Amino acid sequence: MNIKEFANKLNLNILVEGDDMGREITDCYIGDLLSWVMGRAPEDSAWLTVMGNINSIAVATLADVSCIVLTENAALDEDAKAKAEMHGVAILSTEENSYHTATKLYELLKS
To answer: Please, are residues 95 and 46 in contact by the beta-carbon 8 Å criterion?
Structure first.
């Protein structure tokens, strides 16, 4: 499933369209400790977090995740939005918590 399909199926808000909304999502990773995510998030995963700051964009780029999903209506700050646009990082948001979002993504990925 690609980022655009994921956003549509889970009714996610698209805060930043990445360079490739057709990029595949093959996994999911939940984490807010950036150093931990940087070393452990699988490539091509949807990263679920509440961290909407500029450092998150750097971590997403280094970990090569498909997209960032800000859960629980976490805010994306303006510097982070600008950096995401510059680097082509897709950022989505939802009011759901990370657990519920991850379980829905899991169901979509296994079907």
So the answer is: no
Q: Find how far residue 89's CA is from the centre of its chain.
A: 9
- Return d(Cα 94, Cα 48) in angstroms, integer: 10
Token readout for 14 is: 């698209």
* Two tokens, residue 81: 């939005």
Distance (Å, whole) CA 21 – CA 72:
22
**CB 21, CB 90: distance < 8 Å:** yes
Q: Which residue in this structure is represented by tokens 């280094």?
A: 62
Q: Tokens 């303006």: give the residue.
A: 78
pLDDT tens digits, 71-111? 999 999 999 999 999 999 999 999 999 999 999 999 999 98
Nearest to 16 by CA among 86, 97, 98: 86
Structure tokens given for 61: 């780029």
pLDDT of residue 111: 87
Nearest to 71 by CA among 8, 1, 15: 15
